[in-house]
Amino acid sequence: MKKDVTTEEKIKEAARHVFMAKGFAGCSSREISKAAGMNVALVNYYFRSKSQLFKIIFESAMEDFVTSMITVFSSDQSIESKMRVFIEREFEFLSKHPELPVFIITEMNREEGCSIDHACFFEKIAASGIFNECAQAQAEGKMRKINILSLTLLIMSNCQYPIMAKSLMQGIHGLTDEEYTSNLLLHKQNVTDMLVSYLFSVNTITIK
Amino acid sequence: MKKDVTTEEKIKEAARHVFMAKGFAGCSSREISKAAGMNVALVNYYFRSKSQLFKIIFESAMEDFVTSMITVFSSDQSIESKMRVFIEREFEFLSKHPELPVFIITEMNREEGCSIDHACFFEKIAASGIFNECAQAQAEGKMRKINILSLTLLIMSNCQYPIMAKSLMQGIHGLTDEEYTSNLLLHKQNVTDMLVSYLFSVNTITIK
DNA sequence: ATGTGTTTTAAACAAGTGTTTAAAATAGAT
DNA sequence: ATCTATTTTAAACACTTGTTTAAAACACAT
Question: Which of B161, B191, B86, B174 is nearest to A146 (CA)?
Fold first, then answer.
């Protein structure tokens, strides 16, 4: 028997949407099954339990998250232009999946969330060779010497936070969706300028 | 009748802890009442409902959040040193309340979360005069010309994200609590350097 | 001690939770 | 058409949820 979209995929897609929007604790199995247009029992028929289904969705979300990074790192460019492209792509990717960072951070803080092995993601990133490339650039004086955690944090902070905090910023500054989106473009440019000049010290800083 | 700590305060304190750690959806009324060492019915006796209690806790959390900012802005210093002090204080404050940013962002995304008026917080910040001060510094060429949202985002991103994403970063980089904390100190310095030099263009950037 | 108002509790309520069971519907092979 | 295995459903399971009710415990004035 064949279908355009298998039942299993229907469930996963529905679960992805619902989990992302409301979190593990914020939704019920029945809600997911309804979003997939079927009976509750089917969810457990294909994926033994709610937790099991969640684990699959979460890991695939992490996978997307990391894959989006690695594609840029593996490309063949100077490290500085990799950085520029990376920021560009990260804003683009996260605009399409705005709930992803909050989702990942929230669920990492859940007790059960720790059961998942995260180190493998670091290994994947490391395997792209980006960290060695940075170390070399730092040794050659082409790049500011900061440790890898700090580098990761600088980039992630400035790419992810502006998208995670959308509703907060809209609330505080009183902006519509469109206004926020257009402001985000300006901000992306500022972030790029700031990070590139800080890390690679392109001394074209002239203000006023 | 008098007590050292009133029942009402006991409930609020317990609710604050539990809500922060698990979110609105992630905990039950009974969990809160047990944390406060009493019967469930008492929670509803003092605060009509779980939602009502939550609203109070959330708004007080936002209050703390904003108050922590304003104290620095209202002080009597140059805008550049205000920035330095602000980052310092923000890292210190958030280290003591690490769940606060994720909590606020998560609950802002809940449907019911929108019922709360957020604009008042912006007004409070604006009332501190910090925005005018920035505008003036920008007009005088002392500060880079970027809009307020972007400025807010730059600061918040770099102060809040490193603390929100602790468990994610620990997972990825394989760090203990102590290691992360000490790395956070180094990172705070990097953030300060980067932001100050980007915004005020202190051109002492010479690498290696 | 009695009465009064407040604070606290145990118990119950209906509704919703994750999960399981057994029966029904469906598919494909003979 | 009959049999078999897979897919889907309705119904029930035991348990937790937010909230309410009525009785108990308490404090305090008289």
Answer: B191
